[in-house]
Amino acid sequence: MKNSFATAKLMDLRHIAVMIFTNLKEKENYTFYLKKDDGENKILRKGRHMASNGVIIYYLNLDEDFQFGHQYEINLDSFSPLTIDVSDAPTFAEFDSMFTYDGDDLGATYTKEKTEFNLWAPISLNVFLKIENDKGDFDLIEMKRTDKGVYRLTLKGDYLGRKYHYVVNNYSYTKECNDPYGKGVSTNSLYSVVVDTNKIEQRKKVALTTKLSSYTEHIIYETHVRDFTEHKGTDIVHKGTYQGFYEEGRKTLQGNPCGLDYLKFIEVTTIQLQPILDYQTVDDNNVANEYNWGYDPISFFSLEGSLSEDPTDPHLRLTEVRELVDTYHKNDLRVTLDVVYNHVYDYLNCDFEKVVPNYFFRRGNTGYIRATSGCGNDFASERPMARKAIIDSLLYLVKTFDFDGFRFDLMGLLDIDTITQAYKECKKIKPDIIFYGEGWSMDPDYGEYRATILNSYKLDNVAFFNDAYRDIIKGPTSDYNLSMTGYVGSNSSYLPSVVYALFGTCVDMDGNVKRFKDVTQSLNFVECHDNHTLYDKLFASNPDDDEETLLKRVMLANTIVDLSYGIPFFHMGEEVGLSKHGLGNTYNIVKVNNMNYKTVDERFDMVIKFKTVNHLRRNASPLFKEKDMPKLIKEFDINYDLSPLIIISSTSKKVCPEGVKEVAIIINNQTYGTTLTLDDWFIIYFLNGGILDYKQWVKELIIPPLSYTILYK
Description:
alpha+beta; eight-stranded parallel barrel; seven-stranded antiparallel sheet
């Protein structure tokens, strides 16, 4: 009809709205016909209608529920046939009960004889597989719709290495996309690729030598594959890659261990990798000039290509990552992975959104995409198939690559049930798996449902980055208060609070409120990849210090972290006071985040002291074994009388090693020392002296400046 056009939208399973945009006078006798692919035209019953400013809206009634996967069109007068927009269907009340699928076969499953392709696309009219053929062109093959809106296709023959896309027709528009469950991708993720994950999954697992019975037995060390291996001051061959990360026997220019051997040397237990699931902003073909931490994900299943020795080989990165984990296990080191499920890089171009629009991302009451993460979208983890995607991703990473645990980015934006169910399922495969994450409260409207620190009592098996601990020990972290001192900056107003921190913030003490049920939930840290390094923070808060004093403060902070109740966590290079030149958010700056092995060589005495404290932590049984802090703290005598010293002592068998009558911890956060008169004590450790001879008896003890001392009687 000239000067007019119309659209049709599915409002619920029994109602369609037709909107006529016209400058003509409203017509009272429109007749609407519904044509379905399996029948004749039917006249639709009209409900109410309304007209305003050149728009007429008719609400039409269906005699039966709309059936997805069938062709419908609406005809009226001289208008062209109307295709029905079904994009709001995922918001219908019945949608989840109609289409939630619990099978474990989504994605492409390869064998030499056949490959099965399965895609959950419940509102689609049809789906085609676009797959590379023997000539390097692409064939388009229609898939079959089955129960719960899963489209399936089995291709006989060997399709290993073939590129493919899905072409999804959601009635009113068609999108071409990668497989949301695709395990393999081509260079820069332009296509999904058929890969053989079973071959990797069936490799024999490498058993760890040391068994950890509690989260508190972990000493976690955060790294980035590229940053840990890229620096020119080593003989690592495959710099900046997965392969470089597991090379053995490598040295710095001064002959000190680097890479994997460095991690073994410092006696940490657990290596955390920053994200290696596929991310957007590094060009696989231009790695030298581009960089990112990896918190801009485009896939929950495929691996990042820029870290591979050959990004053009989609299989290689799979074997590289499995070899990485196996090699670390062989060296008795656990590997956890930083995973980003709270957002994606660009939701409009995300494969999940292309396949099922308006399902996978949270929307506000007026339809806007919620952006609580600050990254443009919030992944709707509470929806059954979004939750399934997260859990399926985690299970894939455990089964195929044998990861030992996960660090959840902005975990406080994920829902409690998803984290709880994910832990339960992963634990079936790996009984000693560890879950921990950022529990910041960022979504106050739904705070009671989110996996935040405030809800830690609902998440027994999850640990949280303890920001209260961080700010007590090193001082406030934000850019605007960077100059404010914390306890290790010689601010003795933190005296009561630092004891609260030493006990994992798990007791009510001096106005500080208990944060966790026990210390297995308190991940104690003063530096991670975010924000300024510990050294840069102390440089800003104590500007009159010389470098020697600043580095003593660094060592004191790290020692307190290591010897507190809870889970110690360290960021790569923190132990030698690495700097990012005063920068905070360095997520995309080339080389500034590198592990600087020249500095490691220059400050290797700090490395040795860090190793010493880790060794003490791992062998100071039963000092850090107890979980119940309100019960344990009664076994300690806490003395502030010699302020600014803190003296904490205990005669409890829950604290003292066999044959030791009493243990005392003395912390000095000042730049001057003092002398104590003692009776019948000997030193096991103090910060700038290492472990001493057990038979060295002490009567007059000099407490060094900026030191942590442990005495045994």
